[in-house]
């Protein structure tokens, strides 16, 4: 599987200009051409590309190819859906849900940190009276 070729094919099929696509993912035109040459790319970048193209990340992978990951005592076979096994689509869905939850929790933490700073400031004001 050559992921760069698959990305190039998707962009070409959608008749998106390379310069326009580069702007959509905040990369340079030359960087886009370098992506086309790569067999592997960063997962975060792949998710960004898939979002811009409005396709699931799993569409960049061959469904027939099974990837086995050792998970302590049991194997998870990506591409099948069976006892102890999970499909690529399910993996992608769980990943997207986890990323959404992470963003939500980061926002909550940020809000709590601001609240804590405000309370510390109030305590300092009251202590100085």
UniProtKB/TrEMBL annotation:
Annotated source species: termite gut metagenome
Keywords from the UniProt entry: Coiled coil
Entries under InterPro entries matching the protein: Cro/C1-type_HTH, Lambda_DNA-bd_dom_sf
Location of the HTH cro/C1-type domain: 7-60
GO molecular function: DNA binding
Any Pfam family the entry gives: HTH_3
Cited CDD domains: HTH_XRE
The protein's name: HTH cro/C1-type domain-containing protein
Residue ranges of coiled coil: 88-129
